[in-house]
Amino acid sequence: MDAETIVILTKGLTIAIGGFGPAISIGLIGAKAMEGIGRNPEASGKLFVPMLLGMAFAEAIAIYSLVVSFTL
Amino acid sequence: MTIPPAAAEPLWHLGSLPLTNAMINGWIAVVFFVCAAFVLRHILRERPSGFQNLAEALVEFFLDQIEKVTGDKARARKFLPIVGTIFLFILFSNWLGLLPGTGSIGIWEMIHGEKELVPLLRPAASDLNLTLAIALFAVIASHIFGILSVGPLHHVGKFINIAGIIKSLKKGPIAILVAVIEFGVGFIEIISEMAKVLSLSLRLFGNIFAGEVLMTVMLGLFSFFLPIPFIFLEVLVGAIQATVFAMLTLAYLTVATTPHTQEEHA
Fold first, then answer.
1. Local structure of residue B225 (DSSP, 8 states)
2. Does B148 touch chain A (CB under 8 A)?
3. Taking 50 as the threshold, does the pLDDT of residue B265 lie above it?
4. What is the pLDDT of residue B142?
5. Local structure of B98: helix, strand or coil
6. CB pairs under 8 A between A and B
């Protein structure tokens, strides 16, 4: 493998592995929020913003790996 | 198909200051809001109609939402200009970047010996300089508000907790141990202040820039129908990222202006 190939491989691996964790965590946050809304439909308005914030924090990790893969 | 580069491309140079395409988009948003403010001031009436109705509804909605976080009216009124401006500016510049023409209309220029299209417009938030500036402003504003509302000594004490150690000296060895750990936690807080700036700026930049790359790739694959769901996704992302940025700024401002309650440790 020459340097060029390794760079391309690393780019792909960075976003693939880096997207793995955030994907699971965003899914979990969404699932739990849905569960909460299912149990108490009136809470949907109150749950929405905290859910978005939590998702944004989880998503930030994926964005870091995205930025890394762009700058590589 | 050329994927947009991570840094905004300079179009012209003013002396040594490059005028980038993201700057043009940012200034369009600025001019829009300044014009809107002047128009609003001109048509201000006792009995609101049209545009004034919309503006009043927006301000009231923001005030309501901000009050839910801060918990009191006085701080909500104080933070509204900062948080509301950040939200509206980011939202407008994000959606401005979705209009057709952004990234496709440009000037052909010679870059590194190759003829390349330099687009005239580029979403303002897809330039790390802009997002970093807003994030720095938000975090520094939270510190200034913190110093103004809880006092400089108290505010610095949140990070360098010497008062806690002095107080604990009277209470015995375990209290001293806890105070030393809290002193160390204070230093971690300093690092987390820097991480705030980093994560705020990178989140917005990454989302908007990734959106731009996504749109370019999708439009390159097939120009008709295929990009529509992705444009919808980008509209959502633009609104969500503006909300997240504003909410986090608000959270930082609220935490900084809340006095640190010194719990009694046994």
1. S
2. no
3. no
4. 92
5. coil
6. 36
How far is the alpha carbon of B240 from chain A, nearest alpha carbon, in Å? 8
Distance from CA of B39 to the nearest CA of A (A): 32
Domains, chain A, in order of start with CATH, read 13-71 (1.20.20.10)
More confident residue, B265 or A45: A45
Closest CA to B255 of B181, B150, B100: B150
pLDDT at B266: 41
* Integer Cα distance of B26 and B220 in angstroms: 26
Q: How far is A60 from chain B (nearest CA, A)?
A: 6
Closest by CA to B134, choosing from B65, B73, B204, B194, is: B204
Left, alpha or beta for B191 (phi > 0: left; psi -120 to 50: alpha)? alpha
Q: Under an 8 A CB cutoff, do A67 and B206 touch?
A: yes
Say whether B6 and A71 touch across the interface (CB within 8 A). yes
**pTM higher than 0.90, yes or no?**
no
Cβ of B244 under 8 Å from any chain A Cβ? yes
